[in-house]
Amino acid sequence: MKIVKSFTLLFLFLSILSLSNGCATLPNVSQKMDDAPVGQKPRQIVSSKGLLSPQKSKAIMERLKRSVNPTDILERYIAVVESVTESPLTRGNKVALLIDGKATYAAMFEAIRNAKDHINLETFIIDDDEIGGKFTDLLLAKRAQGVQVNIIYDSVGSITTPESFFKRLRDGGIQVVEFNPKNPFKAPGSWFLVRQDHRKILIADGKVAIIGGINISNVYSGSFSRRKKVKGKPLDWRDTDIQIEGPAVVEVQKLFLETWSRQNGPALAGHNYLVDQKENGKALVSIVGSTPGTDNRITFIAYAAAITYAEHSIHLTNAYFIPDSQILEAFKDAAKRGVDVKIILPSTTDSSLVISAARYSYSDLLKAGVKIYERRTVLLHAKTAVIDGVWSTVGSTNLDYWSLLSNDEVNAVVLNREFAIEMERMFASDLAQSDQIQIDQWGKRPLSQKIKEKAAHLFSRWL
Questions:
Q1: Statement: residue 14 has pLDDT above 80
Q2: Could you give the C-alpha distances from 66 to 44, 54, 61, 81, in angstroms and in order?
């Protein structure tokens, strides 16, 4: 069995290299921003009752602008994203920041227990461990109560999870779809290993959605990771999700249903997946989903535009940071024009090659005035940002080529002062547990480290 698994992993690695994303390109964000119709008409916002009038939409944006220091990010950013996606900006959403795995799993379990009609789960990794077992037991119990349960899991992300794990779910009446099966005989004519479903989504009854970077695995639960240790002690994984109630849940549900359809999942009949929504809060939320293709890299465009339009502060946390030239220049330009740019990155991760590739860009960023920090004592896996005290994002998108070019991703963008304050508190807490990279000391690092960074950079498009 071990020989078969090793062969499978080797075959997967060689296949990915041979079908690499090396020829794929990211969109020209400058052109997208130039083409966006800024100033031609007020941004229109969707409420629980439908599209608001231009006058009401304008009034909402004006109130939001008055709640923060003067910034043009709101209107200019929204115009760009609206020009490249059909997913609208929605009002009336209640949002809750789920800072870590414990908080996220508690919220997920509560949403599952309260579900009465359906549960949709989409994840990159679902492990056959204690946490995976808890999810399985709870989902099977809900299915036995008559609740429809639909699961999408990524074939590559869950490569070590035995088929018996999924058979138990199917035998219990749960509909399970394997995204882009690694076994070519399961998907003849459409086999393509490079594309992966990196989204993490839970939707209960079409009314509650939880998205972010947290997979179904013990490593996020407060249990220790068996894969990484610091001075002999295993590391917790540090990640973040967001819970949404309100009109934006419909947009998350649409993404799940589209993926289910593209993967030829069984017909989803007899349940109301796109339910009428109530306004539960005050947050404006946009759900930004990406699929492979130059014009579909919406999460990349969203990040690049927000960084470009920042006027006061950019506070970003990212797990796998290997930025392309456009993102890199946007950070440097922001720092040069006086924006407070702080980036928290991992000091260790599940790939030393990724760490070296990320550090390759440190010198350029530090010279431009960007402040870089490395998080201690945890394996940092979060993908979050807060800009100008009003624009926030939580999601699955890493700022590396693999995430931006090859994966299905999803982020929630929240335009709300109160939520941004929570995001800033979380960022400050991580900052207090991080070490700042000082430019003078960085220049004195060993030659061997510089060689590792240069070598890793050569493989940056495959990391």
A1: no
A2: 18, 18, 9, 22
